[in-house]
Design a protein that fits this description.
Length: about 400
Amino acid sequence: MGKNNNRTVARNGKVMNSEVNALPPQKSVFLAYVLWLFGGIFGLHHLYLHRDRHAFLWWCSLGGYFGIGWLGEIFTIPSYVRDANEDPRFIEEFIKKLQTHKKPPYSGKRFLFMIMIGYLFGQLANMAIPNDMYMAMDFNFLHWLIPFFVALGVWTVGNIGRERGVLWHCLLAAFAAYPIRYFIYDETYTILITSLAAALVFDHASKEWLRTPPKRRGICERFFKFSTAMFIYFSLWGCFFYFNGTITDENGNEVPIHEAFQNFLASAWWTDIKQALKDMYTYAQHHGWYEIWKELLESMDVDGERNAYKVLGLSATASQTEITATYRKLCKTIHPDTVKDESQRATAQQRFIEVQQAYEILSKIKSARIRKNKKVVNDDNENDTIVL
């Protein structure tokens, strides 16, 4: 009593009772649309709806190949929300699909997306393989990992939502199609054909209905899996830039990034940076990190005080009286109305504005310090009175 039965759909399309479990937390259509609008190309709305695979693919392809898939979801988000909430209306519609179709019907949109993501993953793996020998090693044998990434991309798309399938069907098709590279001699067409073969096999031989509601995993498990996938994705991009990326020098010559990086680590500039960081750490050990932070803020001149003194031509020890006198003198000598030459008037106007701004900054800082000092003195007097 008082407990909700988690419902699973049997193979004959009927609803049967399974393990006792509470309904998932209910999701909001409004919030899903807000996340779709402001972070949809990164899959935020899919993360919110526990569609992590969908979110990862949206993140990798910037909303389904630069926003195309993102725009196409404007009418499907309510259905996604009903699925996440295990809404009775969604369950009823899903049961009708099960009764009508023994396996998920062909979807041109999903099939095309399987090919595109399979091609994307395969091409990324291909770009990550070093084109030249590195550390006296030839990495061309790694090209046989490309079918794996193609199959992984196809399988990931095929397992979105209420459909699923096994990975090994995609792997067999991808590895069977990949040797065509020895006849075509173009890796781009090879990867495309491999992706097409994997998608065809998955669509006809592997895909089936996901008859049980998707398992609700904890935030830690979801974060670990998602961050692991992102780490692998970024690692492939990192390998591409490091091994195959180039930088053009001042002479127009292309230098491989890994060579440029090694040269940078051996440069005098990097040596000076390392020494500066070491000196900063040593100084912080004796004086504390707060002093480092104070010196950093002073060097950045965040309040503009140092530049204001420079504009007025004064030292940092100048009093408010000296600042005011210098400001008035400069206003008389550099006022734009005193400039006869029209070509120099704009420069004089800019200089006059800089002087005014410098005076305002210093006056504001001086006034704030005076108020602060008065407050400290008054507090000290009050404390002395209490002690007496």
